[in-house]
């Protein structure tokens, strides 16, 4: 599958490496591609990454994502799946979207694109290699388009997330839960002294 | 230990029953005690519950808690541990404190009281009987007073939460994480079709 990333940070780097290993054709898009090039990865401009991908991935900082995506423009994203991993924080580590979510706002701004929020509840190394934990825990999916969530689910499989670890929360409005969890994530990370963990649902 | 609840709903009822069984002397406080009386439980006014408890428990609806507590007044709560379980929701199921937390606001309004936020990340039956799940998962504690968190931890033991399941997130500011998680809790509950679950942290 052709995958185009927006962003070249830890998240994009970790996921791109795993998906490349799994046989996908991955391009990273940057506003400054010449500064982000590195051995073993293809870095292009944002518009080129959008044109390349059947599936696009928003791995830009959440407080900048809407600006970046709007700059690329809705036509370039039309009819595509956009996996959104971003979480927006203010300088004081509050959410930039405290009463909605970035995922919902991207979906509203790009109605002809199928936004799927996922992988937003863990650190990059766990996103890309859940098998390194004692057990993977859960990864959540939120999106209005069932087919887009199926495509995303197969890409999650390729990262090491079995179907049994994937929990479909429902429509894109449920992205709110994934994003708001970030504050508990930070509290747990502080208590444990590491970001390398996940949460798993336990039932009766 | 003498425990005074504010609130007579599901949360207060479930916890009061378990703590009574464990040998504690429990009173439930209500604005309308005559309407809330039931066999096997002691219901008083709010001021009487405050006077009774060495440890107090806020189990009122989170959107009403600050009003209820302010009505009782800071002197009645002075020098006591206040376990806060409340989460405030708007009618649209957004948080009433989207950029801070109820726990922090109670602590700020009652500086001579030791507020401990805990048990806010699960449904009443799981709070009171985590042993009914396949594994208990985690319960989180947030508070500025270490001794108050120790007292709370022993009361959690009495509900069936072993020390190993208790995760101290830090100061009361970390209550934000517990409260914001409510939105992910609702998403997971919707996906599972039940509120009877918890989350557990998995590490490497």
From TrEMBL, chains A, B:
Highest taxon above the source species: Bacteria
Matching InterPro entries: NAD(P)-bd_dom_sf (IPR036291), P5C_Rdtase_cat_N (IPR028939), STEAP_metalloreductase (IPR051267)
Organism of provenance: Streptomyces ovatisporus
Keywords: Oxidoreductase
Annotated signal sequence range: none
Stated name of the protein: NADPH-dependent F420 reductase
Family annotation (PANTHER family): DUDULIN-RELATED (PTHR14239), REDUCTASE (PTHR14239:SF10)
Coiled coil: none
Record's keyword annotation contains Oxidoreductase: yes
Limits of the Pyrroline-5-carboxylate reductase catalytic N-terminal domain: 2-86
């Amino acid at each position: 599958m052709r995958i185009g990333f927006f962003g070249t940070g830890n998240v994009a780097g970790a996921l791109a490496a795993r998906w490349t290993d799994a046989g996908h054709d991955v391009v990273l898009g940057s506003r400054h591609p010449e500064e982000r090039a590195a051995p073993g990865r293809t870095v292009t401009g944002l518009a080129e990454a959008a044109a390349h991908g059947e599936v696009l991935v928003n791995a830009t900082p959440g407080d900048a994502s809407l600006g970046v995506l709007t700059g690329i423009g809705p036509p370039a994203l039309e009819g595509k799946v956009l996996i959104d991993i971003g979480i927006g924080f203010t300088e004081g580590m509050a959410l930039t979207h405290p009463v909605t979510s970035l995922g919902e706002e991207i979906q509203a701004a790009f109605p002809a694109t199928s936004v799927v929020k996922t992988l937003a509840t863990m650190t990059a190394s766990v996103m890309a290699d859940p098998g390194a934990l004692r057990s993977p825990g859960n990864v959540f999916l939120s999106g209005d388009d069932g087919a887009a969530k199926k495509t995303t689910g197969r890409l999650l499989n390729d990262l090491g997330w079995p179907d049994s670890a994937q929990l479909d929360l429902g429509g894109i409005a449920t992205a709110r839960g994934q994003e708001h969890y970030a504050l508990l994530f930070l509290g747990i990370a502080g208590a444990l002294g590491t970001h390398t963990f996940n949460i798993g649902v336990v039932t009766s």
